[in-house]
Design brief:
By secondary structure, the protein is an alpha/beta fold. It is built from 16 helices and seven strands. The strands form two sheets. The chain has a five-stranded mixed sheet with strand order 2-3-1-4-5, sandwiched between helices. A two-stranded antiparallel ribbon has the order 6-7. The structure holds guanosine-5'-triphosphate and magnesium ion. GO terms for molecular function: GTP binding; hydrolase activity.
């Protein structure tokens, strides 16, 4: 069975602090909150750069707006955007694009005034729009952003022929969609870890079906596992017959169901399911069957992952687990069961993506 090296993403400092202050009595509340916290994360992206570089046009393009549509950002040849304006990401309202005024205009003649007026430090990451060549403003802006410990990347908007992108009909072949998936990944990479992980979970895998994006999801799901296992140990309600452990079955089922939606495994009977090869259908069906299947079967599956040796390692690594009634064995069986199951679901999701691509090419 696994050794200590296999435990990924366990960050015990916060738990330790909590236990020191509150004891273990309500530790389940602590983990429940942590596991849900990704839903509250909002990311503010500052769209900045020289005046006229195409910032507002770009925001319209990725939102699928024509420049003269109602609700579109105002576009123009001369110093058009006067104050920071917020626009939602088209598929994820947790990402806010802030259309900032251009730099180097009468209202914002120098960098210092600009940074102060647009409140540069309030954004989480930046896209710096440049025209054909890098200007002094671009360089100074980049330096300034780095000095406040934020990340940015350059976009040469007009070279990306956004107008061409916009005119293509929306479909799975839509290049705007690919452009957009690339942009989203770049944004993710520019964010601090916690925001990146939270945002990864809030992105819909179907809009950016790609093996890389699947990997990102899986990595984040792995970082939750030790928390789910801790919670299962803390809230253990169902004793497993024949073994002296108990786990929280409802919690485990919820997490598996979360994996299913996060990884985009289609429901049986849905059009996406019907498009899969027979062997992939069988695997997806088998994986999802435990969500509606018999409790005793699930219990036996989980119990198979109990291990004394691993339990000892857990207690060394996360001491509070040892002080819980059902303790380390519950943790271990939950953790390894989830680990094993996520691996299988990841493999199935890879097939789902691969087959979706093949279908696209046949179309
Ligand atoms: N050829 C071409 N022109 C573009 C493109 N994107 C924007 N423009 C034009 O460039 C001008 C400036 O565009 P905006 O999007 O208003 O630029 P901005 O960076 O928001 O400018 P400010 O709000 O003044 O900072 C407009 O006339 C746009 O029509 C592009 O991809 N190609
Ligand atoms: Mg503008």
């Amino acid at each position: 069975m696994a050794s200590i090296n296999d435990w990924t993403g366990i960050k015990t400092e916060e738990v330790k602090e909590y236990v020191e202050q509150n004891g273990v009595a309500n530790i389940d509340e602590f983990f429940k909150k942590k596991l849900k916290s990704w839903q509250d994360v909002e990311v503010n992206i500052g769209i900045t750069g020289d005046t006229g570089a195409g910032k507002s046009s770009y925001i319209n393009a990725i939102r699928g707006f024509e420049d003269d549509d109602e609700g579109a950002a105002e576009v123009g040849v001369k110093e058009t955007t006067k104050k920071p304006t917020c626009y939602d990401h088209p598929t994820n309202p947790k990402i806010k694009f802030w259309d900032l005024p251009g730099i180097g205009t009468p209202n914002y003649p120098d960098l210092e005034t600009y940074c102060k007026e647009v409140k540069l430090e309030t954004y989480d990451a930046f896209l710096i729009f440049t025209s054909n060549r890098f200007t002094a403003n671009d360089q100074q802006l980049a330096k300034k952003i780095r000095s406040i410990d934020k990340r940015f990347f350059f976009i040469r908007a007009k070279l990306m022929t956004m107008f061409a992108l916009r005119s293509v009909k929306r479909s799975n072949h839509d290049p705007a969609k690919w452009e957009f998936a690339k942009l989203t990944q770049a944004i993710l990479d520019a964010l601090p870890t916690y925001q990146r992980e939270s945002l990864t979970l809030s992105l819909d895998i179907l809009t950016s079906l790609s093996p890389q994006f699947l990997q990102r999801k899986v990595q984040v799901l792995k970082t939750r596992m030790w928390m789910v296992a801790s919670l299962s140990a803390a809230a253990a309600v169902v004793p497993i017959p024949g073994v002296s452990i108990a786990v929280d079955l409802g919690l485990i089922m919820n997490e598996i169901s979360f994996y299913k939606s996060q990884l985009g495994l289609p429901d049986e009977g849905s059009p996406r399911f019907a498009m899969l090869s027979v062997s992939t259908q069988v695997e997806v069906k088998a994986l999802c069957s435990i969500l509606a299947g018999s409790v005793s079967k699930l219990v036996m599956l989980i119990a198979a992952y109990a291990s004394e040796q691993a339990a000892e390692e857990v207690i060394r690594l996360i001491p509070f687990v040892g002080s819980l009634v059902s303790g380390a064995m519950s943790f271990v069986s939950t953790f390894f069961f989830l680990k094993h199951y996520l691996k299988r679901m990841e493999k199935a999701a890879e097939l789902v993506i691969k087959e979706a691509f093949q279908n696209l090419q046949i179309d």
